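Need tokens for this chain, all 90 residues.
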Amino acid sequence: MKKVDLVEAIAEEAGLTKADATKAFDATFKVIKNALANGDKVPVAGFGTFAVSERAARDGRNPRTGETVTIPARNAVTFKAGSALKDAVN
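Here are the structure tokens for all 90 residues:
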């Protein structure tokens, strides 16, 4: 499902115009992005939790040359599905 399809579905479900649904969609994900950038968790009841986890630096290998390279530490966005979402999918 593309963003356009999702916005159309939101507009239909909520009785909004596509322009208003697009604004709501963009605002929602902007708020989630800003919260994650500040290191906060974002729980969405009945859906799941977005969080940031720290990945430690580690050694890896270049598959072409076999040379050992250091992969730097970084932050990664994680998502843990809630039980209601898991039940809906299964």
